[in-house]
User: Fold this.
Amino acid sequence: MEHLKYRPDIDGLRAIAVLSVVIFHYFPSLLPGGFVGVDIFFVISGYLITSIILKSASNKSFSYLDFYKRRVLRIFPALSIVLVSCLIV
Assistant:
């Protein structure tokens, strides 16, 4: 897997997206279009995932199995905690 170089500008976009969604939820009249922060997250995720795939493909090291395995290992622990918490409560 190719690791991308750290991009502080992307972290800035993430912060703006988070703030816009939080402000929209708590003070909807203050930022009526704050829900667009969710769209920003989708765009950032698409950009990062595409960059990883293209970089791996250019090195002839891309594997769908490895790609999805990494996604599952990254997402499923948190998902499992949420599901178990919901079942308990």
About this structure: The two ends are 38 Å apart (CA to CA). The chain has a mean pLDDT of 92. Residues 64-88 form the longest helix (25 residues). The chain has one domain: 8-88.
